[in-house]
Amino acid sequence: MALTKEQRKEQKREYAREDYHKNKDKYKRFRATKELREYMKRYREKHKKYFQEYKRKWHIKNRNKIIKKAKKWKQDNPERNLKLEREKKKRYRSNYPEKIKAINYAHINNQRDDNCSQCNSIIDLEFHHTDYQNNKGFTLCRSCHKELHKGDIIAT
Ligand SMILES: [Zn+2]
Ligand SMILES: [Zn+2]
Question: Which residue from 39, 50, 129, 149 could staple onto 137, CB 3.0 to 4.6 Å apart?
Answer without folding.
Answer: 129
